[in-house]
User: Which sequence fits this backbone?
């Protein structure tokens, strides 16, 4: 699961030790995308849906060729029909507004904050595109990356998933009377006919419970009563962990927790341990890779990569 506090923008990219962006590099007439080792992650707002796109590999000549002195605006594009990710640029400055621009020029990009969708003017009508801007390139020499955060001023909390594809490599579309081309993602809730309490997403099994106390996001939880959850603490072996919280919650709220599956956190996690490293329950429910040396020890997950873990809770072991 991926939880973000904004929509439509860059979430994560490669930086140097001073936290300056290094994910873009000028290479002659081209701009390269650098992924080493941090992935580049961005989110696209598509009406009521949100898509997480992850660039895991360095791409040489990702944008270009560039010549001349005209300012260019680099962007990512996801095809609404095929789901294919491409990279392109244009020389018309994008607009963000809640009202339709007057007298637009051909290829004018307008992020409509009322409907939360990127629209492009064809010369006769506005059409929806799935696009996020990467950088501004001035005079074929000055490259200014877009900052991390929303490019449209959208600061709401969202759960954004990666687009699902079928076995023929085609994106799976969500049925809608409006025929608006929304995709199913790894965050699309689905129901299970086998258990009335259980829902699932493609990457994780989800159960709801009522919080008995405040529980931060991505902390170990334990049953403290019928359908009631509290923080799991390795100092209290009588309440072993059964999963991790998928969102922050306060006492009396009914919220979801994850019992098994892949969980991603692109904004807060940066696991440096090797893939497969065990993750344990800490003293206040936090996830730790250092095995606790007293009270109890319980493995709850393993590291997959810098931003991903696999939740698979094991039996608790009590120290004598």
Assistant:
């Amino acid at each position: 699961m991926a939880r973000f506090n904004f929509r439509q923008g860059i979430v994560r990219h490669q930086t140097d030790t001073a936290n300056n962006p290094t994910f873009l590099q000028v290479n002659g007439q081209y701009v390269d995308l650098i992924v080493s080792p941090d992935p580049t992650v961005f989110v696209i707002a598509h009406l009521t849906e949100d898509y997480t796109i992850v660039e895991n590999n360095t791409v040489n000549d990702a944008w270009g060729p560039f010549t001349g002195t005209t300012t260019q605006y680099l962007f990512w594009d996801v095809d609404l029909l095929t789901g294919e990710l491409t990279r392109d640029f244009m020389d018309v400055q994008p607009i963000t507004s809640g009202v339709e621009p007057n007298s637009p020029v051909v290829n004018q990009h307008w992020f409509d904050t009322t409907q939360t969708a990127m629209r492009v003017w064809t010369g006769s009508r506005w059409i929806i595109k799935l696009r996020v801007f990467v950088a501004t390139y001035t005079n074929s020499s000055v490259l200014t990356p877009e900052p991390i955060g929303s490019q449209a001023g959208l600061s709401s909390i969202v759960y954004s998933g990666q687009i699902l594809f079928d076995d023929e490599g085609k994106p799976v579309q969500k049925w809608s009377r409006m025929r608006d081309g929304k995709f199913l993602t790894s965050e699309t809730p689905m129901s299970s006919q086998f258990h009335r309490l259980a829902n699932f997403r493609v990457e994780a099994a989800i159960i709801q419970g009522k919080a008995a106390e405040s529980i931060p996001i991505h902390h170990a939880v334990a049953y403290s009563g019928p359908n009631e959850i509290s923080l799991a603490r390795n100092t209290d072996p009588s309440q072993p962990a059964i999963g991790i919280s998928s969102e922050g919650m306060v006492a009396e709220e009914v919220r979801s927790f994850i019992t098994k599956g892949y969980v991603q956190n692109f904004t807060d996690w940066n696991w440096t341990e090797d893939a497969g490293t065990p993750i344990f329950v800490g003293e206040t429910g936090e996830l730790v890779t250092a095995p606790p040396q007293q009270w109890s020890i319980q493995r709850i997950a393993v590291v997959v990569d810098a931003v991903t873990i696999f939740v698979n809770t094991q039996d608790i072991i009590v120290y004598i």
Q: What stands out?
A: The two ends are 37 Å apart (CA to CA).
